[in-house]
Structures are given as C-alpha cells and as structure tokens.
Design goal:
EC 1.3.1.76; Rossmann fold; precorrin-2 dehydrogenase; Helicase, Ruva Protein, domain 3; 8 helices; binds 1,4-dihydronicotinamide adenine dinucleotide; two-stranded antiparallel sheet; binds ligand SHN; 7 strands
Length: about 200
Amino acid sequence: MYPIVLELKGKQAVVVGGGTVAFRKIQGLLEAGAFVQVISPEATDEIKSLHAANKVMWKQKKAEPVDYEGAFIIFAATNDPAANQEVVRYAGPSRLVNVVDQPTLGSFTVPAVARRGRLVLSVSTGGASPILAKRIRNDLLAAYPEDYEAYTEFLFYCREKLKKWKASSDKKQKLLHEMLDEQYIRSGEKQQAFIDTLDQKVT
Ligand SMILES: C[C@@]1(CC(=O)O)c2cc3[nH]c(cc4nc(cc5[nH]c(cc(n2)[C@H]1CCC(=O)O)[C@@](C)(CC(=O)O)[C@@H]5CCC(=O)O)C(CC(=O)O)=C4CCC(=O)O)c(CCC(=O)O)c3CC(=O)O
Ligand SMILES: NC(=O)C1=CN([C@@H]2O[C@H](COP(=O)(O)OP(=O)(O)OC[C@H]3O[C@@H](n4cnc5c(N)ncnc54)[C@H](O)[C@@H]3O)[C@@H](O)[C@H]2O)C=CC1
C-alpha cells in the first residue's frame, strides 16, 4: 500500500451506483472539489438532491464503457458484483479505480478521513476493519480540534512568506520551528503578532 494525497479540484470522477456507499464516496469527492458524474438506474434521495442542486450530474441508466471516457478516477459502487467487475474491465489497467465490494480488483481503497483545513489525516486498516478506521478517525478529530484549521492556514501563510525571504537557511529554520510553538495553536492574536513581525522582515 502506498498512500498519496490526490489533487481532485476540477477533475472528473465517475461513480457507478447510486446507493448509500456511493453517496459516501460522492461526499468525499465533492469535499475535494471534483466534478462528479453518477451513473445508476436508481439513486438515494440524498444523491437526487445533489443532482437537483447541480452539485453532481446523474445519468439515470446502467453503466456503459463510454461513461468512463475522460474519467480521472472511477468508483465501482453498485450492489452487483458482476457490474462492479465490468467497471474494472472497461476502465483498463492505468486508471484509478475503487471497487467497494471486491477491493483487490481495484487500484486503491478509500481511507477514513479527518479534515482540519489543510491538515488531512487519513486512516486505513488495509481492509481489516473499516469501523476501526472510522473510530481512529474520530479519535484524531478529538486530538486535533477545529483550531487546527486556522492554525494550518497560519502555518501555510508564514511558510510561503519565509520561502520568499532572502535570508540564511538557519534564520528561516529558526522561524519555521518557532511558529510551531503551542501558543499559536489556539490564539488568533498571537498568530497575527507573529505574522506582523514576519511581514516586517520579509517585504
Ligand atoms: C476495502 C474498502 C474499500 C473501499 O471502499 O475503498 C472497504 C470495503 C468494505 N467495507 C465494507 C463494510 C463497511 N464499510 C464501512 C465504512 C467505511 N468503509 C470505508 C473504506 C473501505 N471499505 C475500504 C477499506 C478501509 C480500511 O482498510 O480501513 C471507509 C473507511 C471510507 C469510505 O467508505 O468513505 C468508511 C468509514 C468512514 C466513514 O464513515 O467516513 C462500514 C461501517 C459504516 O458504514 O459505518 C461497513 C460495515 C461494517 C463492516 O463490514 O466492517 C465491506 C463489506 C460489505 C458487505 O458486507 O457486503 C467491504 C468489502 C470488503 O471488505 O471486502
Ligand atoms: N466499501 C464500503 O465502504 C462498503 C461496501 N459495501 C458494499 O457496497 C455495495 C453497495 O452498497 P449500498 O450502496 O449500500 O447498496 P444499495 O443497494 O443501496 O445501492 C446499490 C446501487 O447500485 C445501483 N446499480 C445496480 N446495478 C447497477 C449497474 N449495473 N450500473 C449502475 N448502477 C447499478 C443501484 O441502482 C443502486 O443505486 C454492497 O453490495 C456491499 O457489498 C457495503 C458497505 C460498505
């Protein structure tokens, strides 16, 4: 297994199937900014609402090979094992394919994810127990509370600024470590004070 973080903004994702599992995968895709097409003769009310709100495109039919053209990432999420196998066959060997009922047929599995802005914590149990993955995700959400959203935005701003600073790498390293001081996690005021000092140094 080799974990990566995919950039899906504006990329085309095809989800075959319109049930509760498909809906969960769709939610993750929308959070990542993907353009989602759902191919399924039936869909849950939640998926229908997303379609009505133009958040996803829903083709109300069974999947055919033509549906995968242009897809960057594909989910075989029907309740029909043969239909899911067919998705894999037509997608070909060089595309990202997730298969919800026969995971080894696909090229990747979906972890449980805790998001705090730029901080993305993902948990996989290699198929041992999705419920354990979910539980550990919830533990991580408690350990890294909402403050981390603003905090990681602060760190991102400061690091981008420091990258442009024409100073010695020692000086940069010192600040890169200083900004990790615990005092900055919860205090917007302290973050702002650090930014102000940095803005004076790096113009
Ligand atoms: C291999 C993988 C492939 C993939 O889907 O990518 C896979 C496969 C299967 N899941 C099954 C069942 C369940 N899956 C969940 C939940 C989640 N499943 C997710 C991922 C994965 N599931 C991948 C591995 C992840 C890992 O290794 O840790 C999560 C983490 C992410 C997500 O789906 O977004 C999401 C929780 C996060 C959230 O809620 O956010 C629940 C619990 C629930 O629904 O509350 C149950 C019922 C309990 C049980 O069975 O354990 C079955 C049997 C189906 C059947 O019985 O027919 C298979 C098929 C098989 O194992 O062969
Ligand atoms: N990976 C995971 O996280 C989990 C996987 N599963 C597996 O996922 C499968 C799907 O689960 P649910 O979403 O709960 O099922 P569901 O019964 O709610 O939905 C199945 C959907 O597939 C559609 N479908 C059937 N044949 C199709 C075809 N040829 N082309 C396009 N769409 C088609 C149906 O119209 C329906 O919308 C289950 O059979 C189970 O084995 C179940 C729980 C978790």
